[in-house]
Amino acid sequence: MSPLPCGRSIDELVAYLADRDDPELTAHVAGCAQCAAELAELEDRWSSVRLVAVTPVPTPPGLVSRVLAAVHGVRPRLGSAPAGFDQDGGRVSVAERAVLAVCRRLAVELATGLGLHVRGTAVEDGELQVLVAARYPAPAISVADELRSQLSRELVEHLGDAAPVVHVHLIDIG
Amino acid sequence: MRGNAAAFDQLVRRHTVRMYRVALRIVGDPVEAEDVVQDAWISAWRALPRFRGEAAPSTWLYRVVTNAALAHLRRKKPTVPLESAPEPRTSDGPEASLLRNETTDVVLRAIAELEPTQRVPLVLRELEGLSYEEVAEVLGIAVPALRSRLHRARVALMAKLGEQR
Ligand SMILES: [Zn+2]
């Protein structure tokens, strides 16, 4: 970066702005009109960054519930456990967890390719339910159908006979 | 597992708003930010058996959401032209200061143009207010390396904001 007439650089002033831990530069700025002017301009820009830091970010309504639903969808369900099922990491549980994980991963990959956003996956009674959101209403329904057929094909490839029937539900548009 | 699940749901309730904020500031789009938050919580759930308090939960979760956001940026295809991307929805009423929104939009757009390797530390340090040590731990890099990344990020951001005037 090009130096100021006094030999200091904007880079140095930016570093000074963030940390203020250079007593030698503090002394210089106090006596240098160019640096003082540059620093004032940089401080103005920096204050807009500080403003962003304290400006609250609006959270989409229902976000926490959707996240909880998504997390529950990749958890083995206690109710669906066969007799003698070991919930604390037994072999059956491992297999079920793997199926849930594969369903979720493939759903997200394929949905992303189609411009859809997965908002939850769950296996209920051996069938996979996928909840998706779409930005644009017009193509959303045919794209959701496309997701269902692609996902069914991929799941059969990965899981064979263990592949669940797939349902895709559009829950949010736009 | 039953106890773990309840404790984990509690983590989700407590930290999702913050995770979303970080994701939004890194990926710059509310719909994609929600994708990131979901991915982050699902990897957190899978990693839970390995998480035994080696870091504070908040540090761990910052790392999880940061990694999910970076993975999202890597696989994102630039298909939607920027001008057709929808405006972020805000819950502010019309009485909210227009000037303030304009300023924050300008800054967020400038941050979104930074390289991800600069953007992520900048968001964690300057917007989330983490210490240098905390950011270095989240990113798994040494403090001196972090300082130099942050310096480049600040210089680039100040230059971009200068162009806006
Ligand atoms: Zn000077």
From TrEMBL, chain A:
Domain of life of the native organism: Bacteria
Record protein name field: Uncharacterized protein
Record organism: Saccharothrix tamanrassetensis
Lineage, opening ranks: Bacteria, Bacillati, Actinomycetota, Actinomycetes, Pseudonocardiales
Automatic annotation (TrEMBL), chain B:
GO biological process: DNA-templated transcription initiation
The RNA polymerase sigma factor 70 region 4 type domain, residue ranges: 107-157
Gene Ontology MF terms in the entry: DNA binding; sigma factor activity
Annotated keywords: Sigma factor, Transcription, Transcription regulation
Top-level division of the source organism's lineage: Bacteria
Positions of the RNA polymerase sigma-70 region domain: 11-77
Family per similarity comment: Belongs to the sigma-70 factor family. ECF subfamily.
Protein name: RNA polymerase sigma-70 factor (ECF subfamily)
Species of provenance: Saccharothrix tamanrassetensis
Lineage: Bacteria, Bacillati, Actinomycetota, Actinomycetes, Pseudonocardiales
